[in-house]
């Protein structure tokens, strides 16, 4: 009697004791590793880059405001900003192609980024877990260091508002390309409101378009702002032509010509924490496998 009566109690106790364990396991999966969190220096650089971009746009607005022909100047500034947005897409594509195909860990200045790119193809989910300043600070630092003197030079030369608008838009889109890139890999249900519509309209690089870049041999769809240049560059094989020029002049083969190295192949069900701890995530980290969820 006592034995049979105690059995249900033991099962209940067992269930009660296992519930916290399951909850703690689920909670641990939602914890962002320290390597993916923003640090104060990263926040400072992101703020500095944002301030430089804002200053450029404020200069644009001031020059339009004091202009004797505000309407035409505003139109010129808007067109220049669009040109900066377009050129930023092309620039990210060229940079992405260069890093993916040439150099190695020992390459001066860019070596760490080149090595890390192998990691982001292998472990592509990390970028969707990074906090904003952790993700954007490197490009924001470049914007802070380059845009301030560029804007000063434009002002010294009495450049029109359109010149400042172009510089500000180009810098803003290059910095934010990391965020657009992350959204191109995020699951649909996790996208902020409006982002999916912007992707569908071609304003931001879409999930479907960028997914093509992650198919071996990783030699298409390099642009990550809007992706507007991807079709032209791939259709006319612009990068393939550049690769041939480089090869004929230097005998250096791009990585995309060879069989994909195992270190580039995506690991199914990659562990974000392990990825971050290993440092396998580049400046232009590629994110998780595209999901229709």
UniProtKB/TrEMBL annotation:
InterPro entries: Lipid_desat. It is found in: Membrane. GO terms for cellular component: membrane. Keywords: Membrane, Transmembrane, Transmembrane helix. It is a multi-pass membrane protein. Residues 85-257 form the Lipid desaturase domain. Residues 1-30 are annotated as: Disordered. GO terms for biological process: fatty acid metabolic process. Residues 1-28 have a biased composition (Polar residues). PANTHER family: OS08G0187900 PROTEIN (PTHR48231:SF1), TMEM189_B_DMAIN DOMAIN-CONTAINING PROTEIN (PTHR48231). Belongs to the fatty acid desaturase CarF family. This is Lipid desaturase domain-containing protein.
